Amino acid sequence: MKTTLEIPDPLFRKAKATAAQHGVTLREFVNDALREKLSGDSKVGAREPAWMKFFGSGKPFAASIREIDRAVEEEFERIEDEDRK
């Protein structure tokens, strides 16, 4: 079923970035999150993407990932500010 949801911009960006970090689409991420929330399962990203089996989870790069996330967030804010003009 298709539906339309209103998601606050910061939450949307965080969800999209987190989905990308887990190697899934936003649709998959949202569906998984809903299933987990409804089932009471607290594990996020229960399905491990195939690339993780080869490359690993990226935990050694956590600081770099946070830095990239921060840069992306700043860029989204700059773009949104330009759009408002």
Can you offer a commentary on this structure?
- This protein is mostly helical.
- The protein has one domain (9-84).
- The chain is built from four helices and no strands.
- It has helices spanning 9-21, 26-39, 50-55, 62-84.
- The longest helix has 23 residues, at 62-84.
- It is flat.
- The protein starts with 8 loop residues before the first helix and ends with a helix.
- The relative contact order is 0.11.
- The mean pLDDT is 80.
Distance between the termini: 37 Å
Computed CA radius of gyration, to the nearest angstrom: 15 Å
Assign the structural class, choosing from mainly alpha, mainly beta, alpha/beta, alpha+beta, or little secondary structure: mainly alpha
Query: What's the count of strands?
Result: 0
Shape: flat
Uncertain parts:
none
- How many domains? 1
Helix proportion range: 55-70%
Order of helices and strands: HHHH
Largest sheet: number of strands, sense, barrel closure: none
Strand fraction band?
A: under 5%
Q: Could you write a compact summary of the structure shown?
A:
This protein has one domain. Helix content is 66%, strand content 0%. The protein is built from four helices and no strands.
List keywords for this structure.
flat, mainly alpha, 85 residues
Q: What is this structure's SSE topology?
A:
Blueprint: H1 9-21, H2 26-39, H3 50-55, H4 62-84
